[in-house]
């Protein structure tokens, strides 16, 4: 029972991470591409300036929650996807200091270097999380002692790369739409243009991923709990983005990419349930919420803490977005 | 090298690096919060300029602390999978709570503080920096409660070969935590204060922006002295607690091979031979170790060889003596640095009270390199604590070599070790360069310059000096 609660809570934490950091990864990737002048780039960065750090904590919390609630999941996933995680950490380290360091010097080379670190540092984690999710869905070689016995290269397959590309495209779209809400004038038009251009491609790549998932995984056949209409709604939400942009309803378009992210994450996790890491070697060696979980007492304590703090976190993070609800413009005070 | 040695090296390198930034963040957060409080109460622009100047360095520092902290959260799973499986049901708890309760608070309100100067009322904006400081302190509390469990496991039982939490409040009430936490927090305040004192001294010697750096110096030197003293007192408590919880670490940090007589002398320096298990030379102060351990002139302190025999009986065959030289010397370096800090603090406060700071050029010049002292003390303190616990990763429960990820090869650990070291090195270089530049530029005294981003970029603060 509590294992299920924690499976849901970790799903919630990942939804928070993908939804929130999703758009700031998108903005990060687009910064050196959309921003033609230094001021433009600064505006782009400032749209996520007050938020990105708080957004990233959703990932840290998901990691901590896995450690506390499912220590075996935490241990197997992180020691197994070792090199991928290493690359993601380097990317997040570079990106995190880049936001703070880039404007401290006037030198254009210095700034351009950090802007590209932001861009690549946003692209890599998006790609790697997509790859990781695809592998979680398909299963990976795990032995009877819960250890991953493959290599880094085993994680890369056409299927998982399409998974990575889906995540990148979705976050790009999500980020471009966020920018259409947070910038004005020329930049806003450019951001909308990007969203319009990549909208159809995003749908195509995601559709390809769903089709491949049908062949590559046995999720549709046997496992998990049926997500019902959820994946269909996810698809509809994504398809509606194009029309909302055309109708000048950028807010709705952003909500719809958000909905796609939320509903797709729910779909993936509910199809995995109750597995957390599927073994391709022997189904009995898979990690489930039962053999990976902490003891009941720990789960109880953690439930109390999580259920009482997550709503509070949501409340003050929403307040943050309210405080900085205004569009960022080049005439603002940009340098902090 | 084997994977376990590389994994230990990686943990050492990344954690020491992380903990260069963390105490400075905590210390500066409180000092800045104090300055901004003065600004709100007295409505004096000077305090705002102070808060903003130190805030710039604080933010550079905080950024590095945050990103290296992410690494910390994941590295247990990456390099220490069997440790994670063994203690996750206890140790994971405080880490998750830290993220939920503290890290969210800290990161969210820091974002608001950075960008909120013109958006929020003065009081709400002030509340943000206080929340950051308090959340960072709570962060330390949760992380240290996890570390305290490694030093002195409480609130658990072993079920099916792993540790399971049975009492969350026992974890929080761990005696080890409550000697460790004050020591770390006062040490963090001292770190921030010595940093601020040193930079202010540098500016005062150059007679730059005295209206900013004179008061900064005065505030910081008072905090430096008080917090250095409190760190020492808390450290003394911790050492006394060690006598009962980890006597082996205590004996190693004293280079004490054999149980002392009725009154134990304190060894100032010694030439330790871990092979022969003896000291070929030592300089002693009679009675002092008894006084330090028990607050009285008598009291025997157990030696390593006797404890070794006792542990063999208790835990089975094995070598329970930690690397003695490292433990012994890191302890002395920490204490030495701490004593110097107290001395410099007393001198500085004396000069400040007599109004003689600006004339004391020689003292002020010494305060810049003295910034290194708290960092040296923090680092050597952690080395002593963690190396002195060996061979255990969790005292009495799991050996360090049993904790590593069984299928992560030494090549993989070596690769990531090199990768992190290179990237951390580059980040450190950029960080130091930017801090030096920020200090040279000094505070933005022209409060009106930030009307519009362009103006801000073009204003040459250096020209105002």
CATH class of chain A: Mainly Alpha
Name of the CATH superfamily of chain A: Formate dehydrogenase/DMSO reductase domain
* Uncertain stretches of 5 or more adjacent residues of chain B: 447-465
Specify the helix fraction band of chain A: over 70%
Element string of chain B (H = helix, E = strand): HHHHEEHHHHEEHHHHHEEHH
Secondary structure: helix percent of chain B: over 70%
Number of alpha- plus pi-helical segments of chain A: 11
Query: What structural class do you assign from the helix and strand content of chain B?
Result: mainly alpha
The SS-based structural class of chain A is mainly alpha
Q: Average pLDDT value of chain B? A: 91
Radius of gyration of chain B: 24 Å
How many beta-strand runs of chain A?
2
The average pLDDT of chain A is: 92
Separation, N- and C-terminal Cα atoms of chain B:
54 Å
**Sheet with most strands of chain B:** 2 strands, antiparallel
Multimerization status: heterodimer
Arrangement of strands in the largest sheet of chain A: 1-2
Number of domains of chain B: 1
**Outline of chain B, from the CA principal axes?**
globular
Query: What is the straight-line distance between the termini of chain A?
Result: 48 Å
């Amino acid at each position: 029972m509590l294992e299920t609660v924690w499976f849901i809570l970790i799903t919630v934490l990942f939804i928070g991470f993908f939804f929130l950091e999703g758009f700031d990864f998108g903005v990060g990737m687009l910064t050196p591409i959309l921003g033609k002048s230094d001021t433009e780039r600064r505006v782009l960065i400032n749209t996520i300036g007050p938020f990105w750090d708080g957004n990233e904590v959703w990932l840290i919390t998901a990691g901590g929650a896995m450690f506390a609630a499912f220590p075996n999941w935490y241990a197997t996933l992180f020691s197994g996807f070792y090199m991928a995680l290493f690359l993601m950490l380097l990317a997040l380290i570079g990106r995190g200091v880049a936001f703070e360091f880039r404007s401290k010097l006037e030198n254009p080379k210095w700034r351009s270097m950090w802007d590209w670190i932001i861009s690549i540092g946003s692209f890599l984690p998006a790609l790697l999380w997509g790859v990781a999710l695809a592998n979680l869905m398909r299963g990976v070689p795990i032995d009877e002692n819960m250890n991953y016995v493959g290599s880094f290269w085993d994680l890369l397959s056409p299927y998982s790369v399409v998974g990575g590309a889906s995540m990148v495209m979705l976050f790009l779209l999500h980020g471009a739409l966020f920018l259409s809400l947070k910038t004005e004038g020329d930049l806003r038009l450019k951001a909308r243009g990007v969203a319009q251009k990549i909208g159809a491609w995003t749908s195509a790549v995601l559709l390809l991923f769903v089709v491949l998932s049908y062949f590559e995984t046995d999720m549709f056949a046997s496992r998990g709990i049926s997500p019902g209409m959820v994946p269909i709604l996810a698809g509809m939400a994504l398809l509606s983005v194009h029309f909302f942009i055309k109708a000048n309803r950028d807010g709705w378009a952003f909500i719809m990419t958000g909905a796609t992210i939320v509903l797709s994450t729910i779909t993936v996790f509910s199809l995995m349930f109750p597995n957390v890491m599927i073994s391709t070697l022997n189904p009995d060696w898979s990690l489930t919420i039962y053999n990976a979980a902490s003891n009941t007492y720990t789960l109880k304590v953690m439930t109390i803490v999580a259920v009482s703090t997550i709503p509070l976190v949501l409340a003050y993070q929403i307040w943050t977005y309210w405080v900085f609800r205004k569009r960022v413009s080049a005439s603002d005070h940009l340098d902090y | 090298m084997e994977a376990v040695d590389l994994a230990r090296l990686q943990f050492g390198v990344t954690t020491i690096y992380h903990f260069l930034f963390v105490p400075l963040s905590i210390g500066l957060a409180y000092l800045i919060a104090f300055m901004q409080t003065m600004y709100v109460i007295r409505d004096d622009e000077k305090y705002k300029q102070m808060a903003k100047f130190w805030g710039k360095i604080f933010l550079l520092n905080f950024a590095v602390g945050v990103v290296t902290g992410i690494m910390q959260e994941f590295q247990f799973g990456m390099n220490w999978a069997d440790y994670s499986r063994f203690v996750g049901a206890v140790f994971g708890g405080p880490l998750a709570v830290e993220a939920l309760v503290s890290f969210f608070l800290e990161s969210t309100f820091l974002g608001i503080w950075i960008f909120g100067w013109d958006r929020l009322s003065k009081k709400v904006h002030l509340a943000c920096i206080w929340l950051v400081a308090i959340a960072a302190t709570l962060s330390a509390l949760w992380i240290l409660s996890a570390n305290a469990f490694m030093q002195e496991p409480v609130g658990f039982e072993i079920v099916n070969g792993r540790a399971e939490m049975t009492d969350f409040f026992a974890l929080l009430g761990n005696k080890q935590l409550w000697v460790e936490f004050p020591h770390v927090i006062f040490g963090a305040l001292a770190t921030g204060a010595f940093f601020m004192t040193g930079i202010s001294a540098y500016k005062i010697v150059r007679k730059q922006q005295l209206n900013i750096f004179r008061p900064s110096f005065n505030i910081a030197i008072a905090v430096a002295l008080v917090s250095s003293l409190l760190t020492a007192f808390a450290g003394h408590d911790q050492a006394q607690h060690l006598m009962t919880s980890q006597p082996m670490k205590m004996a190693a940090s004293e280079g004490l091979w054999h149980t002392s007589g009725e009154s134990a002398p304190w060894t100032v320096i010694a030439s330790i031979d871990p092979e022969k298990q003896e000291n070929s030379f030592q300089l002693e102060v009679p009675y002092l170790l008894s006084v330090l351990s028990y607050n009285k002139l008598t009291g025997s302190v157990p030696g390593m060889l006797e404890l070794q025999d006792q542990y063999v009986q208790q835990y089975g065959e094995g070598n329970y003596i930690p690397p003695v030289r490292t433990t012994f010397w890191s302890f002395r370096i920490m204490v030495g640095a701490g004593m110097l800090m107290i001395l410099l603090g007393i001198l500085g406060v004396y000069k400040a009270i007599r109004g003689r700071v600006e004339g004391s050029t020689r003292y002020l010049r010494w305060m810049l390199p003295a910034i290194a002292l708290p960092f040296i003390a923090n680092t050597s303190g952690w080395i002593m604590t963690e190396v002195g616990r060996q061979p255990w990763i969790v005292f009495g429960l799991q050996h360090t070599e049993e904790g590593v990820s069984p299928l992560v090869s030494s090549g993989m650990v070596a690769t990531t070790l090199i990768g992190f070291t290179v990237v951390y090195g580059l980040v450190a270089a950029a960080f130091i360069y930017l801090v030096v530049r920020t200090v040279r530029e000094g505070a933005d005294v022209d409060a009106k310059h930030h009307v519009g981003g362009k103006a801000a970029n073009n204003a040459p603060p250096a020209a105002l000096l």
